[in-house]
Design goal:
Blueprint: E1 3-7, H1 20-36, E2 42-46, H2 60-67, H3 72-86, H4 96-102, E3 114-118, E4 130-131, H5 134-147, H6 152-162, E5 167-168, H7 172-175, H8 187-199, H9 208-216, E6 223-225, E7 234-239, E8 242-248, E9 251-253, E10 270-279, E11 282-291
Parallel strand pairs: 1-2, 1-3, 3-4, 5-11
Antiparallel strand pairs: 6-9, 7-8, 9-10, 10-11
Helix pairs in contact: 5-6, 5-8
Length: 308
C-alpha cells in the first residue's frame, strides 16, 4: 500500500509571494522537503494545475506575471524550473481537485493508496488527510505498516526504509516467514515495537539494565533479556565495514497482541535485538529476528519449537 503525498498551491509556506525571489524560494523549500522523504512505496503527486488553481485568489501563474511586469519569457523559465528542477520525475497525472478528492478517503478503507496533502503552513478546508512535517508523515507511514502490511516482504522492505536508526541482520527478513499463524496478523504490535526501538538511542547508556528500562518506557510491550548467553542468541552483523561475528541478541520485546479487535489472547511473539558497538560509548540497536520464538534445545535450528 503506497503513501501518496500530494502537492499544490497549498504546499507553499504562504499563499501570496512578496517578490519573485520569495516565490522561487518557497518552491525550492517544497522541493527540498520532498526529496528528504526517501521511504519505500511513497509517491510524490504534483497537481497538474498547480500554476493556475485559484483557491487563494491569485494563481501562481498570475503572481509570476504580476511580479515580473507581465514577462512571458520569465513565466516560461519558471515553468521549466517547475518540471525540470523542483519536481522532476514526479507524478503530474491528477489535478488539485482530484488530489483533494482522493484525500477524503477514510484511512480504514483505502483502495488505491493513502492520499495525503502536504500543507506546512497555510490551510485548505477541503483537504481531509494532511500533514505538515516529517513527523506527521512518519505517523501516516506507520499506520500503513500497522494496518496495511500487504505481505511479509512488503512490510519488511518498507520497515527497513522507515526505521533508519536500526541495523538489520541480513536474514532478519526471512524470520517473518517463521510465524506459523501469519506475521501479517500481528503488524500493529510489531510496528509499535519497531517505533520504540527506532526512537531509542542506547548511546551513553552504559548499563544493559538501563537500556532495557529505557525501551520499556517507550512501549506498552514488555522488553526483557533471556538471562543467558546461549549461542542461539548470537548473530553476525556487518555494518559500515565493521563486522561483529557473535553479537548477543538475547534482548527481546514481546508484541503479544493480534490485529483482531477484541482478541484478548496472549500470543508468544518476539522481536530479538542486540546493541551493535559503534564506538566506546556508542551503540546502535541491531534487529536480529522478527516474529518467532528462539529456543535453545537445538543448536542447529534456533527457531525449532520446544519439544514436548
Amino acid at each position: 500500500m503506497k503513501l501518496h503525498l500530494c502537492y499544490s498551491h497549498f504546499s507553499l509556506s504562504e499563499s501570496h509571494a512578496k517578490s519573485i525571489k520569495h516565490l522561487n524560494d518557497m518552491f525550492k523549500e517544497v522541493s527540498d522537503f520532498k526529496q528528504s522523504i526517501d521511504y519505500e512505496d511513497v509517491s510524490m503527486n504534483i497537481a497538474n494545475d498547480i500554476l493556475i488553481t485559484k483557491y487563494y485568489g491569485l494563481s501562481i501563474q498570475e503572481q509570476v506575471l504580476n511580479l515580473t511586469n507581465q514577462d512571458q519569457m520569465y513565466l516560461a523559465t519558471f515553468q521549466n524550473r517547475l518540471f525540470q528542477e523542483w519536481f522532476n520525475g514526479d507524478n503530474f497525472s491528477l489535478s488539485t481537485e482530484e488530489l483533494i478528492c482522493k484525500s477524503t478517503q477514510p484511512k480504514s478503507d483505502l483502495k488505491d493508496g493513502y492520499y495525503v496533502g502536504y500543507l506546512p503552513k497555510i490551510n485548505h478546508y477541503n483537504i481531509h488527510n494532511k500533514v505538515k512535517d516529517v513527523c506527521e508523515i512518519n505517523n501516516k507511514y506507520d499506520y500503513l505498516l500497522s494496518y496495511y502490511p500487504i505481505d511479509n516482504k512488503s512490510w519488511y522492505r518498507r520497515a527497513k526504509s522507515r526505521y533508519l536508526n536500526l541495523f538489520f541482520q541480513e536474514e532478519a527478513g526471512s524470520t517473518l516467514n517463521k510465524v506459523d499463524d501469519g506475521f501479517c496478523n500481528y503488524t500493529i504490535a510489531f510496528t509499535k515495537c519497531m517505533i520504540a526501538l527506532n526512537d531509542f538511542s542506547p548511546t551513553g547508556i552504559i548499563s544493559t539494565k538501563d537500556k532495557v528500562k529505557h525501551i520499556n518506557a517507550l512501549t506498552t510491550y514488555e522488553c526483557t533479556e533471556e538471562g543467558n548467553s546461549h549461542q542461539n542468541f548470537k548473530f553476525k552483523f556487518s555494518e559500515n565495514d565493521k563486522v561483529v561475528n557473535s553479537l548477543d541478541c538475547q534482548f527481546h520485546l514481546k508484541p503479544s497482541e493480534n490485529n483482531r479487535v477484541g482478541d484478548q489472547t496472549f500470543y508468544y511473539k518476539r522481536l530479538y535485538f542486540g546493541f551493535f558497538p559503534i564506538d566506546t560509548n556508542q551503540w546502535q540497536v541491531a534487529v536480529a529476528a522478527i516474529g518467532p520464538h528462539i529456543t535453545t534445545h537445538n543448536k542447529k535450528d534456533r527457531y525449532e519449537k520446544p519439544r514436548r
